[in-house]
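Renewal narrative, Specific Aim 1. Our central claim is that a sequence can be written position by position from structural information alone. The example that follows is taken directly from our test logs and has not been curated for this report. It begins with the structure tokens describing the chain, in the order in which they were read.
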């Protein structure tokens, strides 16, 4: 939601099997720096939230990223990279070279500035392949892209299309296009019945601060240890009382504790309306006569500092498909620096935005903002340059990167259930419609102890490749920003490559079914024969790649599958009382202790409370979040002796078994989008699984794997 101008930079290394980042080569001298490493986990302060739902540049040569596991290979190709041009492509290719050295060269090619150099014996095979590729390219018509609604992404998009030699339609097109690029939302163009759109319906809504907090909170209830990367948050105005009470209790327990909180307006972006408080009485609760919708969040007091400055990370993430779930992470990101040296919050400095808020849009107006041509200095730097500095200080950046990947996957898993509800409402099964994909912008803060913390997810990350410059006093002009151009064009171009309809099998819910492709590395797998001159992909597949480690988290998706099944009317997003009763009856959840009258009371009670919390809800009935609350309640009632997660798994199994038996196993569509765990998995197994995976880092192999690729429509 930040939009406008964030930043962007280059891409990194080979993010192969494990992590894209590795220690820097000893031959490359890092910057001297003042990195502070130590600290506490601010996410784990003693404030407990029990409620759920409602009540409840050119970069300097020696800074070139050593991101990549084959760092030693960097020197191997040093001479080649020395030829890299200073232009966009040059940078991209040079980087790819650093990273890819080993794995991709085995393909028989190495990249220089956009050209392939044959380096091994497989020349004949390669020539034959290339020839095939050219023939294919000649036969294929170019992919068509409607760019009429691209808005601020337009420049980066046009450059990407040019690099791909695809065909753009600046004014739209009567006939259908293969791809529609929307600047804002799924609905920018109405009545699209085919092709692919770069936005999912409902993504904007889901990623608003309140909804994201709710979705993560539900996951925190089920998997508290897995979701401790999100600061404790309270939703205003509805949770004002809980917030005040909890803070008071914390202070009463320990007078030395004086936490700080950050208040963020629900629909805000670019730091707008954000302020810090130390006491609940400082909350600005009203706008005129209306209660302000906002999230108040624990403030991370001890961020990692570089050059004494606070910074955050902008990471680009592609959701290629919801069903099956496919997630890619850009190997390069941006870091945005504050412009005033950081001090822990005190009553005196609470209002110092240039000290506490990393937003580019704010800091650019500070006299201290540095527009640097180098990717490793200035107020906007590449993530890789920052990781490099950390590595030079002995930081285990592999672990940092692995934690970041885990954070991204877990966050996506938290929002997918509701996205599926939006999806089926906008593009009901059986109705012609496009499939969807979307680039998201993750904002992540590294704490002093190097733990990544999720700040927010932007449904419309800025894809601008220019920045504002004051060319004369008071006169601003947009000037090209090479760093932005490099990163953002890479992300858009490679997103398009991944979505190339010529390389996609038809599927549902915005995706291609390619289970067989899982073992293949994105960089090689996705290369098409007619992409000869393009650099290897800067997007790394992380899901389903790390299915084994994260699949067990997809419980709410299974609840959503039940919910969707009982929605009934196409286009609906809410369950009526009759549909809720049908759900209870079909799954045989009522009995003499829990009569249908109690079911009705439960329905009324929960929907009434949720109605007040969703101000813009036009539809009556029970939304997914309310249904999840009801489901948790039913699970708790039925399996009293278990902990919540086990209760939910048990009830899901019961419901799914009922549905399966009734449909004779034929209609599996709604049984599960992601049957995460084998039937026999019990609470102990869950506990062990979690323990065994050490919090499920992506580079750790879990013993349990299961099929997540049930089609559910
Ligand atoms: P916006 O969408 O308005 O930019 P963010 O959630 O990204 O809202 O917050 C703006 C900035 O505030 C972030 O870039 C970060 O620097 C700072 N910030 C946000 N949340 C926290 C937090 N919980 N602890 C510390 N700093 C935070």
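The sequence written for that structure reads:
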């Amino acid at each position: 939601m930040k939009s406008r101008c964030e930043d962007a930079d280059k891409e990194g290394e080979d993010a192969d099997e494990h992590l894209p980042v590795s220690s820097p080569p000893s031959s490359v001298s890092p910057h001297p720096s003042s990195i502070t490493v130590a600290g506490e986990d601010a996410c784990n302060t003693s404030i407990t939230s029990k409620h759920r739902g409602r009540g409840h540049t050119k970069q300097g040569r020696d800074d070139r990223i050593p991101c990549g596991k084959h760092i030693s290979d960097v020197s191997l190709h040093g001479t080649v990279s020395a030829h890299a041009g200073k232009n966009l492509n040059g940078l991209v290719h040079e980087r790819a070279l650093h990273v890819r050295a080993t794995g991709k060269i085995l393909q028989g090619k190495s990249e220089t500035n956009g050209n392939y150099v044959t380096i091994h014996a497989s020349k004949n095979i390669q020539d034959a392949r290339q020839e095939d590729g050219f023939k294919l390219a000649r036969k294929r018509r170019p992919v068509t892209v409607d760019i009429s609604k691209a808005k601020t992404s337009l420049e980066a998009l046009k450059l990407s299309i040019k690099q791909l030699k695809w065909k753009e339609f600046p004014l739209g097109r009567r006939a259908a296009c293969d791809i529609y690029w929307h600047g804002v939302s799924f609905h920018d163009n109405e009545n699209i019945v085919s092709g692919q759109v770069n936005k999912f319906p409902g993504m904007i809504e889901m990623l608003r601060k309140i909804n994201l907090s709710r979705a993560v909170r539900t996951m925190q209830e089920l998997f508290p240890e897995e979701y401790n990367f999100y600061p404790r948050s309270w939703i205003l105005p509805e949770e004002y009382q809980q917030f005040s009470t909890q803070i008071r209790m914390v202070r009463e327990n320990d007078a030395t504790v004086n936490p700080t909180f950050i208040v963020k307006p629900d629909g805000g972006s670019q730091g707008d309306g954000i302020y810090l408080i130390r006491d609940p009485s400082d909350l600005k609760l009203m706008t005129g006569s209306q209660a302000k919708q906002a999230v108040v969040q624990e403030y991370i007091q001890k961020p990692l500092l570089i050059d004494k400055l606070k910074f955050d990370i902008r990471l680009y993430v592609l959701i290629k498909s919801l069903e099956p779930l496919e997630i890619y992470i850009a190997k390069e990101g941006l870091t945005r620096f504050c412009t005033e040296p950081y001090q822990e919050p005190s009553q005196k400095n609470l209002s110092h935005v240039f000290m506490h808020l990393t937003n580019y849009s704010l800091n650019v107006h500070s006299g201290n903002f540095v527009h640097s041509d180098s990717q490793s200095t200035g107020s906007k730097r590449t993530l890789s340059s920052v990781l490099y500095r950390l590595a030079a200080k002995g930081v285990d950046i592999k672990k940092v990167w692995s934690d970041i990947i885990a954070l991204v996957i877990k966050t996506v898993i938290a929002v997918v259930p509701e996205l599926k509800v939006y999806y089926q409402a906008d593009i009901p099964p059986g109705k012609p419609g496009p499939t969807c994909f979307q680039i998201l912008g993750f904002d992540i803060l590294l704490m002093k102890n190097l733990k990544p913390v999720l700040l927010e997810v932007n449904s419309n990350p800025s894809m601008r490749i220019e920045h504002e410059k004051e060319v004369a006093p008071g006169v601003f002009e947009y000037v090209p920003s090479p760093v932005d151009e490099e990163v953002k064009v890479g992300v858009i171009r490679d997103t398009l490559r991944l979505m190339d309809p010529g390389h996609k099998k038809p599927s549902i819910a915005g995706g291609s079914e390619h289970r067989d492709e899982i073992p293949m590395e994105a960089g090689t797998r996705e290369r098409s024969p007619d992409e000869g001159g393009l650099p290897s992909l800067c997007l790394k597949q992380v899901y389903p790649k790390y299915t084994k480690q994260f699949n067990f988290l997809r419980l709410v998706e299974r609840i959503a599958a039940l919910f969707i099944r009982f929605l009934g009317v196409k286009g609906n997003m809410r369950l009526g009382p009759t549909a809720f009763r049908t759900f209870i009856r079909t799954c045989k959840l009522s009995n003499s202790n829990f009569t249908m009258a109690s079911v009705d009371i439960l329905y009324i009670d929960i929907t009434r409370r949720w109605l007040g919390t969703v101000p813009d809800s036009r539809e009556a009935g029970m939304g997914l979040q309310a249904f999840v609350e009801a489901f948790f309640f039913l699970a708790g009632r039925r399996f009293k002796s278990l902990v919540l997660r086990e209760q939910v798994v048990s009830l899901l199994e019961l419901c799914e078994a009922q549905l399966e038996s009734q449909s004779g196993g034929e209609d599996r569509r709604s049984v599960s989008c992601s049957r995460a765990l084998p039937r026999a998995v019990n609470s102990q197994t869950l506990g062990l699984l979690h323990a065994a995976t050490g919090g499920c880092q992506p580079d750790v192999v879990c013993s349990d794997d299961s099929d997540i690729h049930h089609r559910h429509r």
